[in-house]
Design brief:
The two termini are 39 Å apart. The longest helix is centred in the last third of the chain and has 15 residues. This protein has one domain: Rossmann fold, CATH 3.40.50. The chain is elongated, with a radius of gyration of 20 Å. It has an 8-stranded mixed beta sheet. It is built from 9 helices and 8 strands. It is an alpha/beta fold.
Length: 254
């Protein structure tokens, strides 16, 4: 994805309903920011949110495993003339054997706040090390959503689901990871919101986005079933896809 876009800028036009979890995440995040807060953005992508947070706290560090994202983030911070915003390439996924790749790229007891908007969960095993006692973790995650009712009119590979999320649920997955790190969820919220598509080509772009530059079907191959979906399933001029999101926070006490 990083080879084709700066950060997470999606190549289609659509509308997202109100109270979609994003606004609630920002609201909760801002509640935990003060002029003295030192924060960490996990999976910061192109640093758009990180730079905004930097204007509201003492210092913020963002990390992402994709080097081009970090290059873009550094450029964004420089253009904003920010000196309290740092970016590093890193990945805390414990499947990697080397110490540098299996730990959050930060020193012990560094942060008052760790946050992530739609980022990974793979840092949780090590997050307690880098958060100060009394610090917070705030994260927004996608949650499993059943395919739309019209999904059977399109090839099944366009609706790949996270089988673990479907079986266990995002709440259980987060709680399990936190428990392994001797942490617990303090509070959480679920959101269910529609994304509305007004043109067949926009829906097509959404459906094949995960395949990047190698979509399994061209628009012409899917034109007829997509146009049929628009004919039979349009509400107020648009076809909807539901999205569920999970917002949670954790208080770190040692």
């Amino acid at each position: 994805m990083s080879q084709f876009q700066e950060g997470y800028l999606y190549p289609w036009r659509s509308e997202i309903g109100n109270r979609n979890g994003e606004d609630a995440f920002i609201e909760v995040l801002y509640q935990h920011l003060t002029p003295t807060t030192v924060a960490l953005d996990v999976g910061c992508a192109d640093g758009r949110l990180t730079v905004d947070v930097a204007t509201r706290c003492a210092r913020v560090v963002g990390y992402d495993r994709v080097e081009r994202f970090i290059e873009t983030a550094r450029k964004r911070a420089m253009e904003a003339s920010l000196t309290n915003c740092d970016f590093v390439v890193g990945d805390a996924n414990p499947r990697y054997e080397t110490v540098t790749n299996s730990l959050v790229p930060a020193a012990d007891n560094t942060f008052d706040l760790v946050f992530s908007r739609r980022g990974p969960l793979n840092y949780i095993h090590d997050v307690g090390r880098v958060v100060k006692s009394g610090g917070w973790i705030v994260q927004l995650n996608p949650a499993y959503t059943p395919p739309p009712t019209w999904a059977d009119q399109l090839p099944s590979k366009l609706f790949v689901t996270n089988m673990r999320a479907e079986r266990f649920g995002i709440l259980e997955s987060v709680a399990e990871r936190l428990a392994a790190a001797n942490l617990t969820i303090h509070s959480h919220w679920f959101f269910d919101v529609p994304e509305r598509f007004f043109e067949p080509r926009e829906l097509y772009a959404y459906l094949v986005w995960n395949f990047l530059d190698n979509p399994p079907y061209s628009f012409d191959e899917l034109r007829k079933p997509i146009e049929r979906i628009f004919r039979d399933h349009t509400t107020s001029g648009a076809v909807e896809i539901r999205h569920r999101r999970f917002l949670w926070k954790c208080l770190v006490n040692r």
